[in-house]
Amino acid sequence: MRKVLVITYYWPPAGGPGVQRWLKFVKYFRDYGIEPIVYIPENPHYPLLDRTLVDEVPNDLTIYRHKIFEPYGISKIISGKKTKRISSGVISPKNQSILERLMLWVRGNLFIPDARKFWIGPSVKFLKKVLEEDHIETIITTGPPHSMHLIGLELKKRYKLQWVADFRDPWTNIGYHKKLKLTSYAKKRHKKLEENVLNNADKIVVTSKTTKQEFEQITSKPLKVITNGYDFTAFKESVLDAKFTISHIGSMLTGRNPINLWKVLSELSNEHEDFKQSLQLNFIGVVGGNILNSIQKYGLGEHINVLGYISHEDAVKYQQKSQILLLVEIDSQETTGIIPGKLFEYLWARRPILGIGPSNWEVAEMVSETESGDVFGYDAHSELKDVILNWFQAYKNNSLSVSSTNIKKYSRRDLTRQLAEYI
């Protein structure tokens, strides 16, 4: 078995798709001749928790932990709610308090590349013994937080090893980067660090073709697209909701507000009494206040069902029994290559996917290729309305379904095989 050290900030009991990506790779590595060793913080600040994921960690997995100092711990004392929003990526440009604006400025300009930067030096020292005693020749860093890549950069300078940098999201080209109130110096610093990582890593992994194309303008190092995926061995039929449920699984943050969708649903409710009586909007996860306000504005308040954050296991159940699965991305050029992790479980759930996102969104091609639903731009109206009405008619006839073809390539096991071969 070839030993590989995985350096990651997010690990169970943390919740979210970033955790699942590396939990699943670690789960299947041994099937492809790799013995994983994991390095994580001992006392992390996780904005979301899902303790059910702990059960999926292999019992005999070697895990090294080391203490981390995080400024979020201090700021939490000042304003816990605002700190949790910012650390989880909930950045709203509207109605920000002076404290929020200050916290964002500090986050973007003093904590470069992020607030986990204070773990870099201690980790490099701690891992010296680990690398030597475990005879590790390959390390993998996964970000964000991108400070994990700076740990890899420092280890690469000191030791003869192969370094694979996994980018679950872009760095300087991610949507929220512009909201961090960066000075010109901070922008240049972020860009320089990104270039250093991309040009010193031996191999780079990204989750979308768009990010690959962007990074190819910066580096000539090997780049491979390995998406997120689903981890289910056999499909089980579920009893579908009696209501015409449109469910969004996961955080629906500020900026992801498909006004035209609420307008279409309002029109259909006014035009068809049976549609009005059947419609239910499920939100499983954090929902922005502006989104709920917009839904209320279009007279759909009585149809809202907000469940908040639930375990991954329970989220999967909602995916399987929902009539329609809603997928929404921010309408901007920077998000065309963002492929939400939930997409792959949506595919496996075999329920119609209703996507709303930017022009040339990479997701649209994937949904079309798998015949799993329809994706629209933010300006869509009549065509969006026609599709939803057709789906509603199929729902009334108990025939609402999709093919979800050609999805095996997105299984976590097959994706791990691809990664193992690349390493």
In short:
It is built from 15 helices and 13 strands.
Q: Can you describe what's shown?
A:
- Helix 1 (17-29) links the parallel strand 1 (2-7) and strand 2.
- This protein has helices at 17-29, 71-87, 98-109, 120-133, 147-158, 184-200, 209-215, 259-271, 273-278, 289-297, 312-321, 342-349, 362-369, 382-396, 412-422; strands at 2-7, 34-41, 62-66, 138-143, 162-167, 203-206, 223-225, 244-249, 279-284, 304-306, 324-328, 353-356, 373-376.
- It is globular and about 70 Å long.
- It is an alpha/beta fold and 423 residues long.
- It has 2 domains: 2-230 and 412-422, 3-Layer(aba) Sandwich (Rossmann fold), CATH 3.40.50; 244-396, Rossmann fold (3-Layer(aba) Sandwich), CATH 3.40.50.
- Helix 1 (17-29) packs across helix 15, helix 5 crosses helix 6 (184-200) and helix 8 (259-271) crosses helix 14.
- The protein is built from 15 helices and 13 strands.
- Strands 3-2-1-4-5-6-7 form a 7-stranded parallel β-sheet, with helices on both faces. A 6-stranded parallel β-sheet has the order 10-9-8-11-12-13, sandwiched between helices.
Low-confidence stretches: 75-93
Q: What is the gyration radius calculated from CA atoms?
A: 22 Å
> Order of SSEs, N→C?
EHEEHHHEHEHEHEEHHEHEHEHEHEHH
Annotated CATH topology of the largest domain: Rossmann fold
Class computed from helices, strands and strand pairing: alpha/beta
Share of residues in strands:
15-25%
